[in-house]
Amino acid sequence: MKLHELFAKPGTWTQRHNARDKNGAVVDHYHPDAVKFCIMGGLHKCYGENHEPAYHAISAKLVERGSPNGDITPWNDAAGRTQAEVHQLCLDADV
């Protein structure tokens, strides 16, 4: 599964932690109850140890959009960020 496919489903994205369960409790991204992911947690969920190419693709898109260093976590966790924005970023990065 590509990351944009994960985030296409409502309620699968979160902020400030790699993953949460259906009740919003923080869990590890590999935990079987994990259903909501930040971008970093989603990268690990979708690509496992081979997540670096997707990570770099997202980071490059952020730089194109004006992020000075392409840091994913601060962008994901920014106040007011939406799942729709995250999904679109992943689509644009083709991950």
What features would you describe in this structure?
- This protein has helices at residues 3-8, 39-47, 52-64, 72-76, 83-92; strands at 19-20, 36-37.
- With 95 residues, the protein is mainly alpha-helical.
- The chain has one domain (3-92).
- Strands 1-2 form a two-stranded antiparallel ribbon.
- 29% of the residues are buried.
**What is the overall silhouette?**
globular
Strand adjacency order, main sheet: 1-2
**Approximate helicity band:** 40-55%
How many individual domains?
1
How far is the N terminus from the C terminus? 9 Å
Structure keywords:
single chain; 95 residues; mainly alpha; two-stranded antiparallel ribbon; 4% strand
In short:
The protein has 95 residues and is mostly helical. Helices cover 45% and strands 4% of the residues.
Helix and strand layout, with pairings?
Elements (H helix, E strand, L loop, with lengths): L2 H6 L10 E2 L15 E2 L1 H9 L4 H13 L7 H5 L6 H10 L3
Antiparallel strand pairs: 1-2
